[in-house]
C-alpha cells in the first residue's frame, strides 16, 4: 500500500494520471489532521467540534467532543486548530482553537485526552474577541516549532469583512490579523515570552507577527522548525510566506495586509505599502479556478524523492497542488477535483496526507519506516568504533 502511494505520487509529479491512496472516509467536514511525533495514530479535526482518532488499522474513535461549545453553523467558524503538548505521551494534553458558541470569540483551550473526565480537564489559555456580525477570516491554526519548544503560535484572521474594514491587521493594539506567541500555563492562561517583539514597547505583547488576513493553514517544518504561513487572499492574490528558524522565525514581521495582497498593492484600498513589509516567497492569482490557498508541509518522510524537502501546498477552490522549492512552484497533477481540500496533514512518522471537506482523507506520501532500535544500536556501535579509531590515528 505504501509503496503504491509513493509510486503514484511520483507519476503525478511528472504530469501522469494523478492518484493518491484513500485511507479514511466518512468524517464530517474535517478541516485538519495531525499527530504527535512518533505516534502511529491520526487525529482528525471535524469543524463541528469533534476530534476523531484513526488507528493504524483504520479503526476510528472519538477523542474529544466539544460540539456544545463550538459555533460552526455559519461562515468560517468552527473547531479550527489542534496542537500537541510536548509531553503528550505522558499527559495526553492537546490545544484546540475554536469559535465559542456563546461569545463568538476565538478560544484557545487545552484538554487532556487521557483524563478520566476529559471535559473537566479543560483549561482556557487565551481568548480573542471577534468583531460583531462578521463570520469569516477566523484563521485558527495553532502550532509549536521544534526550534522554539514550549511556545504556542496562534494564527488569527482579521476578523472578517472585505478589505479589513477596521484595519485591524495593521493595528498593534488588536490581536486580530496576527501570529501570536505565548507560553501556555499548565493550569491555563499564559505568559508572554520576554523576547516577543512588542514587549516593553507600544503594541500588544502577545503579537509575534502581523499584517495577516486569514492565515488558515500553516506549519512548522518538523526538521528545521521553519515557519510556513499561507495567507488567504481577497480577490486577487494567494500567498505563501516563509520565515526560517535560523533567521528568527519572522519576529516582528509585517506581512502586509491590508495595504498589500500577495505581492501587489491591494486593489481594494489605497493604503500605501508599509515601509517594513515582508513580501511572500510565492504568490499566485486567480487563473485555473484558484481562489483560496491551503498551506501545507515540508515533506520529511524520506519516501518520495520528488517531494522530499519541499513544501507541498494547494488550493481549496481549484483543488490544485504544488511543491515549492525556494521560490519556484511546480504544479503537481492533483487528483482532487471536487474534493475541497481543507488541509494537509502530517503523520507522526512524517507521512503526508490531504484532508477534504467531503470527509475523505488521502495519503499523499508515506514515510520510510524508522530503523528498528536494534539496527540503530548496531549503527551507533559501528559509528562509535569508527570515531574511536579516528581519534587514535
Ligand atoms: Ca507592548
Ligand atoms: Ca502578505
From TrEMBL:
Glucose/Sorbosone dehydrogenase domain boundaries: 36-325
Keyword Signal found: yes
Tree of life domain: Bacteria
Signal peptide (residue range): 1-19
Pfam family, one: GSDH
Keyword vocabulary terms for this entry: Signal
InterPro entries linked: 6-blade_b-propeller_TolB-like (IPR011042), Glc/Sorbosone_DH (IPR012938), Ice-binding_C (IPR013424), Quinoprot_gluc/sorb_DH_b-prop (IPR011041)
NCBIfam families per the UniProt record, alphabetical: PEP_CTERM (TIGR02595)
Protein name listed in UniProt: PQQ-dependent sugar dehydrogenase
Organism from which the protein derives: Pelomonas parva
